[in-house]
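Q: What structure does this chain adopt?
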Amino acid sequence: MTNSQQLLPAVSRLFDSATLGGLELPNRLVMAPLTRNRAGADGVPGQLMAVHYAQRATAGLIIAEGTAPSAVGQAYPNIPGIHTADQIAGWRRVTDAVRAGADGLGGGAAMFLQLEHGGRIGHPDTSGHVPLAPSAVRLPEQLHTPGGLRDAAAPRAMTAEDIRSTIADFVTAARNAVEAGFAGVEVHAANGYLPHQFLAQNTNLRTDEWGGSVENRIRFAVEVVRAVAGAIGRERVGIRISPGSTVNSIEEGDTEEIYPALLAALAEIDPVYLHILYSDQERPRFQEHRKAWPGTLIANQMLSREQFAADGGKSVAERLLAEGADLVSLGRGFLANPDFVARLRADAPLNELRPEFLMNVQGAEGYNDYPVLATASV
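A:
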């Protein structure tokens, strides 16, 4: 018997209830935030999105896809925003649909909205704005724009006033999210987006109070969380990190120093959860962060094809709970299976991932037409 098998509980804890701040969750499965690029060009969520989330409303918690807190923060075409009245109204239709659930599937999941500011991950052809970033360091990759793939634009280094106004944008977006019916928001400080750009040495070349030392480079992420928690309550605020990630050409440089400092500073604010994305090779780092984090921890492991094909990530999720996670977020399983929770509970076969629905492309007829079990509502 392997060590990982020894850690598996005799009875799965995935389907145990849990508390998250003042929320009572029916299970410990979290639908991870998944960019779908299926809002309108104006960033307004439409009926396609409402159906999609309602079908998956048996998750314990849904973290809705990365959403721009401001026009300049828009990273990709057709991602939703939360900074106009129409966007708020569109998201309200989505959260109402999740509370009602889908016919035969049930519903009522708690729902947080991920606030994603692209920073240098943005393009004037997409947002109408020159992107803002900690420093004027261009992304060395191409970006999807309404006109196709384009070389990334050179960002403008943020002034101190830009930083203050961007923090204020996060606060306004969080208030808008609550108005739209979300239980809370998740600050996206992972995967090379703006807060992560402040953390990383290759994207933060500043010499002022927002750059240089570890204390200064964590300041932006900490101040965003502090300001948002002050505006809507710390029990409504989570944060997502990806220690060691190189997505979007991020090079942190001092991962082992910056994250203990970040976690210690965040713990003083006491957000409702810490959401960690990591790979299987980074399990020791995850265990260190579990020991260091006093509150609720959501674990999100990147699954290999083999792990997904085996059981949709159920065994990985159970192992994460055994190793100290409070909740586990999964992505592709929820994409392919509107009734993912029911299938895992019954050890039922999973739908095959359909490549055309994994692509982040607008539209796609049949996007919400994955089959469900006859017993999905059980």
